[in-house]
């Protein structure tokens, strides 16, 4: 994402749980020149092979990219096609200078869910993301340069774009990127462990995550364990659904 922004390329990151049909729809609409993908994703109880989903999406799509760059993960190595190249093959590339763009130059395309019809691509420009992101961290979240913000989301959603990648970095903050689930990777204390280990000041999380953490740890034993190491933790932001009294 940051590399694309540096050279003025437009990125469109998608949720890792999409199937071939959903990928084909977005490939046809955004018409990417290059697709980057991992060979698999890691869930709590299983490994999800991504490459067959990507191949299926490309077979259904009318648009074909120039190349697909694949990161082979040891948990599930993918079979490659003539369209593919390995992530490691890019290591010999030479750095290039940043490319100046106008303030309204597109930064990324992010698609709506498609629950009411064809997914719609929403275009965000550079200046809009910079101004809102840099403003939001101190004003909305109370985070100042040098402090740590943990956006516990999927990078394929808008919270991932803003609260995991762009906004904290634009404001001079550290950002936490966590691969895992609220429970099962390995236990319902994972989020609190990361908060304690990274000196997180504010956590942004969905109410669904709090519900499953409470379900698997009804007495809060894990947060009691990590709380002595969470002196810097000040604020919990919850959004993305109805919270309700019990998890609150």
Automatic annotation (TrEMBL):
<protein>
    <recommendedName>
        <fullName>AMP-dependent synthetase/ligase domain-containing protein</fullName>
    </recommendedName>
</protein>
<dbReference type="InterPro" id="IPR042099">
    <property type="entry name" value="ANL_N_sf"/>
</dbReference>
<dbReference type="InterPro" id="IPR020845">
    <property type="entry name" value="AMP-binding_CS"/>
</dbReference>
<feature type="domain" description="AMP-dependent synthetase/ligase">
    <location>
        <begin position="1"/>
        <end position="245"/>
    </location>
</feature>
<dbReference type="InterPro" id="IPR000873">
    <property type="entry name" value="AMP-dep_synth/lig_dom"/>
</dbReference>
<dbReference type="GO" id="GO:0050218">
    <property type="term" value="F:propionate-CoA ligase activity"/>
</dbReference>
<dbReference type="Pfam" id="PF00501">
    <property type="entry name" value="AMP-binding"/>
</dbReference>
């Amino acid at each position: 994402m940051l590399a694309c922004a540096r050279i003025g390329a437009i990125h469109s990151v998608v949720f890792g749980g999409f199937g071939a049909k959903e990928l084909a729809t977005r490939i046809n609409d955004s018409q990417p020149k290059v697709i980057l993908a991992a060979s698999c994703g890691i869930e709590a109880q299983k490994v999800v092979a991504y490459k067959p989903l990507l191949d299926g999406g490309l077979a259904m799509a009318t648009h074909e990219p120039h190349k697909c760059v694949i990161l082979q993960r040891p948990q599930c190595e993918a079979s490659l096609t003539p369209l593919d190249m390995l992530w490691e093959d890019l290591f010999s590339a030479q750095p290039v200078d940043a490319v100046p763009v106008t303030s309204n130059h597109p930064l990324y395309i992010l698609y709506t869910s498609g629950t009411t019809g064809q997914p719609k691509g929403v275009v965000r420009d550079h200046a809009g993301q910079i101004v809102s992101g840099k403003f939001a961290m101190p004003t909305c979240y109370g985070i100042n340069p040098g402090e740590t913000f943990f956006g516990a989301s999927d990078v394929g959603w808008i919270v991932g774009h803003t609260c995991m990648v762009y906004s904290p970095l634009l404001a001079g903050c550290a950002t936490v990127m966590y691969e895992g689930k609220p429970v099962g990777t390995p236990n319902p204390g994972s989020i609190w462990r990361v908060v304690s280990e990274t000196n997180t000041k504010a956590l942004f999380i969905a109410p669904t995550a709090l519900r499953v953490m409470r379900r698997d740890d009804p007495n809060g034993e894990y947060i009691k364990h990590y709380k002595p190491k969470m002196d810097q933790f000040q604020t919990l932001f919850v959004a993305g659904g109805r919270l309700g009294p019990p998890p609150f």
